[in-house]
Design goal:
Mean pLDDT: 87
Shape: elongated
Strand content: 35-45%
Radius of gyration: 29 Å
Structural class: mainly beta
Largest sheet: 22 strands, mixed
Number of strands: 43
Number of domains: 2
Helix content: under 10%
Number of helices: 2
């Protein structure tokens, strides 16, 4: 069935469109389907809904079109799928003036809602509801005005950058999945509860200010792009996985206490802080921000990530070599400082390197000698916390691509500060 462009179907206390199984309904641009339900039971006896259908049907509302339940009957929704296997694609407006915009009657099975970038789904309270434990797969690229509340099924909510939900988001019962999608940047709204699984997908950046535990999350994964955590996740006990194409960003307080890092963990440490958690996996870690980050893993054996550590800003302080991950992972100086405890013993297999375009200075390095300077070597001067200089120097030589490579074997116990700046 097609409601043509700019056409109108307007009825009173009755269902405006009611179809059975395998229906295809298109409300074209500029068209309107509206009723004004008061007490009617509708075609299926579940309220005088504006549009109702049973199983395996598709409703498409084009941009500029509208489906509106305009009456005062509280259980007469704008769209009411009676069964399962249905898909609602909204590019226009679906609105309940005194009711939910969408209601699912099914008590099992699943239905799908896709609210695209120009779509608006609106209701004075909950925009959506369900009668039982049927699952809903809801994609939001547009606007949801009201609360987004799921029922008892295993639901999925897919949020895209640029979308919005004005009210609270509640996954309801079941085992529910929240995915963060799209390009560009966005911030997850607060007031989200009852989602057990969180996945960051696509290349964009999402910031999550709530604690994951308060959201109900027990399993989190960064598949792609950047997930920036700014809430307090020190008490989070679930899993945290960073895939190869993923970046997990946060501070010592906002990052969870156990991270499987197969991509990149960025410590955005503006203030001083200590991270006592465990980082494992094949990925790398990076120190950003002007503050001092102390890595002090409490787990036996320390951190085991093998992708190396990059110092971009501020100070990274460690008292044991295993805080820097597996011994095969090197340390790269690219603007930051590495501070070593008084009993530090650097692993003989851990390489130290300098990013292209960097030279060492006092918390830096000094040229080893005139010949080394001519050959392009620079040294790292080791200091303790009182500024006492260790006479051992670590040679680095730029490679043909402009980078610098170095290797050191620590034979003394007193090793404390490496640093650098441009120059």
């Amino acid at each position: 069935m097609t409601v043509g462009a700019n056409a109108q179907i307007v009825v009173g206390d009755a269902t405006a469109i009611a179809l059975a199984d395998n229906a295809t309904i298109v409300v074209q641009s500029g068209a309107q389907v509206k009723n004004s339900a008061l007490t009617g039971n509708g075609t299926y006896g579940t309220g005088a809904d504006t549009i109702a259908f049973r199983n395996n049907s598709t409703l498409t509302v084009e941009q500029g079109a509208a489906v509106i339940s305009g009456g005062t009957e509280g259980n007469a929704e704008a769209v009411n799928p009676e069964g399962t296997g249905n898909t609602i694609i909204n590019n226009g407006t679906i609105q309940g003036v005194h009711s939910a915009a969408i209601w699912f009657q099914n008590t099992s099975g699943s239905n799908t809602v896709i609210n695209n970038a120009t779509g608006v789904i609106e209701a004075p309270g909950n925009v959506m509801g369900a009668s039982g434990n049927g699952a809903v797969d809801f994609t939001n690229r547009g606007q949801v005005i009201g609360n987004l509340v799921f029922a008892g099924g295993n639901d999925t909510l897919r949020l895209y950058t640029g979308s919005s939900v004005s009210g609270t988001i509640n996954g309801g019962g079941g085992n529910n999945l929240l995915t963060l999608n799209g390009t560009g940047t966005d911030t997850l709204p607060t007031g989200i509860t009852n989602f057990q699984t969180l996945q960051k997908q696509d290349t964009g950046t999402w910031t999550v200010a709530s604690s994951m535990g308060a959201m109900g999350v027990t399993s989190a994964e960064v598949q792609q792009g950047t997930l920036a955590l700014t809430g307090n996740n020190t008490q989070y006990t679930g899993t945290m996985l960073v895939d190869q194409a993923g970046i997990l960003q946060g501070s010592s307080q906002s990052l969870p206490g156990a991270i499987t890092d197969n991509g990149l963990v960025q410590f955005a440490q503006a203030a001083n802080g200590t991270y006592a958690g465990l980082i494992s996996g094949t990925g790398s870690a990076e120190k950003d921000g002007a503050g001092t980050l102390t890595l002090a893993p409490t787990a036996a054996g320390g951190n085991t990530y093998t992708g190396g550590t990059v110092l971009k800003q501020g100070v990274l302080s460690v008292s044991a070599d295993n805080a820097l991950g597996g011994t095969a992972g090197g340390v790269t100086f690219d603007g930051g400082t590495l501070q070593l405890g008084s009993s530090f013993d650097l692993a003989s297999t851990r390489a130290l390197s300098v990013a292209a375009g960097r030279r060492h200075h006092r918390y830096t390095g000094l040229p080893v000698d005139d010949r080394a300077k001519r050959d392009g070597y620079y040294g790292l001067v080791l200091q303790d916390r009182l500024g006492h200089v260790d006479d051992r120097r670590l040679a680095h030589r730029p490679d043909r691509r402009g980078g610098a490579r170095g290797h050191a074997r620590a034979q003394r116990q007193r090793r404390t500060a490496y640093g650098q700046r441009d120059g």
